[in-house]
User: What shape does this take?
Amino acid sequence: LKSLNYLERVLDPQVFFRINRAQIVNLKEVDQILPWLGGRLQLTLKNGEKLEVSRRQTAKLKERYSL
Assistant: This one.
């Protein structure tokens, strides 16, 4: 977690977003943001990969994009 915390601090927050305890995504690679289970969000990347956003980060992402 320390290395992910470090990356979160040094990466441009306008481009990168931490979606959960284990993943940081490049927002330029997000194709879709969809509602998911338990009020969370699911991201679909341009390569087709689907990622779940944690509840805490869902609130931040919704605020960021006015969802």
User: Anything to note?
Assistant: The mean pLDDT is 95. The radius of gyration is 11 Å.
